Amino acid sequence: MLDILASLVAHGDELLPINARHGNLRSMKTSDFDYILPPDSIAQEPVRPRDSSKLLILDRQSGALEHKHFYDTIDYLRPGDLLVVNRSKVFKARLLARLPTDVEVFLLHPEGDKWIALAKPGRKLKIGSIVEFADGSTCNVVGKKDDGTVILDFQKPPEEVLTLTDKIGQVPTPPYVEKKVSDASDYQTIYAKEIGSVAAPTAGFHFTPELMEKLKSQGVKFAEVILHVGLGTFRPMKTDTLEEHVMHEEWLDIPVETSEAIKATKQNNGRVIAVGTTTVRALESGITHGFTKLFITPGYRFKTIDGLITNFHLPKSTLIVLVSSFVGEHKNDPDWGRQTVLRAYSEAISKGYRFYSFGDAMLIK
């Protein structure tokens, strides 16, 4: 784990003490966070209007559950609460190559004037290979990393590469969404501003302009962070234990205005409620600008957030581990949160909730 911390020290500022980085792993097994989901429970498209999705309320003190709709969040938030959202915007990160044939390039993030990417099948790309796309544009494979990613050189600044992907790229919807997204805005939050994510911060999908205005008129405030979603969020855990899993770095930025809003909220006894696990990782990483590899596991003591709005996550993912950690924080029993979340998921399945990116939501208070 020290290599993760060293990376944070190198990239960020305001690092928290080392003993605040992770939870008490106790060699918990990845399989402890597994569950069975019927295929018809996977949402294939968003509901309309967005705030009509189902909402499972989970009280993390008692474990009690309530079943509502997302527009009912107005009944659970109070004046002085602060909702913090991730304003990162998804770009068309999936590029299909013309040469070599049958190669797909999935851009992750720029690294200097190069790009870190996934390639499928990776064996077709060797250092020195030239990848050509449908419009005739090309990039060179200039390196490979031990984690399976490749380093690409488009010989363009990142801004021009993003312009290129907007023309020839595809919306990088998850593989479990079988229907093609006809409207790219369906895979963006309504407040997305800063291009940089390869997967959407999906907890924010449920907000509509009308609901946000109602919340603001009730005295609920909003603040923004940026965490550009990459491999750290969506790559599954393939290790036997949580302790063995290594998170990939993701870039974040917390504006001064957001830090000040959080401080004022705490001073006035309001609650800081994160919209999405990516927002949680940004707020809990202990830096205001830079890269994070923070992996929140059971036993972690949360520094900033008092509540969480989130979707239903994949089995054995770092996201369900994070949610379990938050639910079980106050029990001094790292396993209680895991058991409570899995029970909530089981009840949600039985009541017809829709899971994953376009699915329904949870409010954990």
Describe it for me?
This protein is α/β, with parallel strands linked by helices. It folds into two domains: 2-90 and 183-364, QueA-like, CATH 3.40.1780; 94-168, Thrombin, subunit H. It has eight helices and 17 strands. It has helices spanning 2-11, 158-168, 209-217, 231-234, 256-267, 277-284, 318-327, 334-350, and strands at 54-58, 65-69, 82-86, 88-90, 94-99, 104-111, 114-120, 130-133, 138-144, 150-153, 194-197, 221-227, 250-253, 272-275, 289-292, 307-311, 361-364. The two termini are 30 Å apart.
Strand content: 15-25%
Domains, number: 2
Spans of at least 5 consecutive residues whose pLDDT stays below 50 are 1-21
CATH class (first level) name of the largest domain: Alpha Beta
Radius of gyration: 20 Å
Q: Strand order, biggest sheet?
A: 2-1-17-16-14-3-12-13-15
Summarize the structure.
The chain is of the alpha/beta class and 365 residues long. It has 8 helices and 17 strands.
Helices and strands in order:
Elements: H1 2-11, E1 54-58, E2 65-69, E3 82-86, E4 88-90, E5 94-99, E6 104-111, E7 114-120, E8 130-133, E9 138-144, E10 150-153, H2 158-168, E11 194-197, H3 209-217, E12 221-227, H4 231-234, E13 250-253, H5 256-267, E14 272-275, H6 277-284, E15 289-292, E16 307-311, H7 318-327, H8 334-350, E17 361-364
Parallel strand pairs: 1-17, 3-12, 3-14, 4-11, 14-16
Antiparallel strand pairs: 1-2, 5-6, 5-8, 6-7, 7-10, 8-9, 9-10, 12-13, 13-15, 16-17
